[in-house]
Amino acid sequence: MDEYRDEQARELPELEAMKEYMEDIPIPSGIDATIWSGIKAGRQRRRRRVFSRMAAYTACLLLVVSVASVRFSPEVAAYVGEIPGLKPLVELIHYDKGLELAIDNDFMQPVALSEVRDGIKMTIDGIIADESRIIVFYTLENVDGQKSVVHFQGVRLTNIKNMSSSYGSAAFEEDWKIRQETIEFQPEDGTRLPDTLELEMKFNKVSEAATTDTVWHFSIPVDKAKFEGLKETYDLNQTVTVEGQRITFGTMTVYPTRIGVEVNYDPANTKKLFYFDDLRLVDERGEEFSSIMNGVSGSTLDENRQVLYFQSNYFKKPKHLYLRASSIRALDKAKREIKVDLEQKKLTTRPDSQLTLKDIGTSADDGQGILIFELKNDNPLDQDRMYSLFESNYKDASGKSFQSHMTGSSGNGSDTEYEYYIPKGKYQSPLTLFIQDYPTRIHGDIDLKIK
């Protein structure tokens, strides 16, 4: 940590002066060692399991992917080298060529606002923003060196209504020291950004000494002159048919941080089309700009309309551009309902033999029921893919609707286990769940010329 601080001091002398304001909050006494040990043991048992809270934003399709190796284009690397302190931030978005291009074209807005609360220093490092998307870069430092488990509990912009968000890691393990993360905000169409973003972030910290909830507030200035009016619009209005399923591509809007393509599915289609496996934009040089795979990948307008998001080529200004794809994950509409017999612990309806019900259990933490499924899938296209199998809403035999707010997944290779949590209550069996994504496909070459 000392090495990191020395590097920051060398790189950011002018910004460090802005970070000196801090507020120390004493850590209250609290949970005992027994509870702390139980928390650690529980986390060890679930170390290999990936959990996610189902988003309350029904308009968003969220895909969160771990960031691995770091490689930049020469242009981005050179640009980063000229601005002190930016390199660690740009490493967070190396997976998105459009954001690299945005940074290369001076789209990063440094912020450098810091506060210390409950032994944790939070710094809002910078933002990238346009009319379609806001990405906030932040750093957390464990300045008191105390072992703790930190949970991200929520974030919002208090001065903007109807704003959805997505973020990366939701929990930091007990031996964490420094974490750099991003938060993405998506304003509704037509929302005009204010001159200042009022950011509120909530964290829960569990240590041997105490359990505390901490809220940070930051006022982040926004240089709107960087992006206002920077967009290009194309009316595609082209329809294709893949294995009898009709798809119409409507308006495409190109922003500096991403591209949005409106997609309409014919209500008369016999299959529910979930996601394109390989939809991408290709220019005259053969360079591809693929779907956004870390952050918001699309927005649902209604049952048969979506806006799908791509990495942006706004700063490339291609002479020719094509929209291409070859496979789409899809399922017969009649097979989307899964019925779970709670007494017999079996599936009475399912899409195929790949999906089975392994068990029905109970969460030791809060008593929720857990439906444990297994999905067998050896398709090479799904080698590194984790499916969000079910929608959050489900119903029982009486027709009453309920909501699940957490799912889990574990395993690798061809066998993956999925956990679907249902709140405690009395249900009339069977339960009906609804497939949200599934590894069955339709195939056909899509090749549309945009310009």
How does this structure look, described?
The chain is mainly beta. The chain folds into 3 domains: 2-30 and 64-223, no CATH class; 232-332 and 441-449, Conserved domain protein (Immunoglobulin-like), CATH 2.60.40.1640; 337-434, Immunoglobulin-like. It is built from 6 helices and 30 strands. A hairpin with a 3-residue loop joins β10 and β11 (211-221). It starts with a helix and ends with a strand.
Map the helices and strands.
Layout (H helix, E strand, L loop, with lengths): L1 H10 L1 H4 L16 H13 L4 E4 L6 E4 L10 H9 L4 H4 L6 H8 L3 E10 L2 E10 L4 E9 L5 E10 L5 E5 L3 E2 L5 E10 L8 E12 L3 E11 L10 E11 L2 E10 L4 E7 L5 E6 L3 E4 L4 E3 L4 E8 L2 E6 L10 E12 L4 E5 L4 E4 L5 E8 L6 E8 L16 E3 L5 E3 L2 E5 L4 E8 L8 E4 L6 E9 L2
Keywords: Membrane, Transmembrane, Transmembrane helix
Pfam families: DUF4179, DUF5643
Protein name: DUF4179 domain-containing protein
Please name the defining characteristics of this protein.
451 residues; mainly beta; Immunoglobulin-like; six-stranded antiparallel beta sheet; five-stranded antiparallel beta sheet; 30 strands; transmembrane helix; DUF5643; membrane
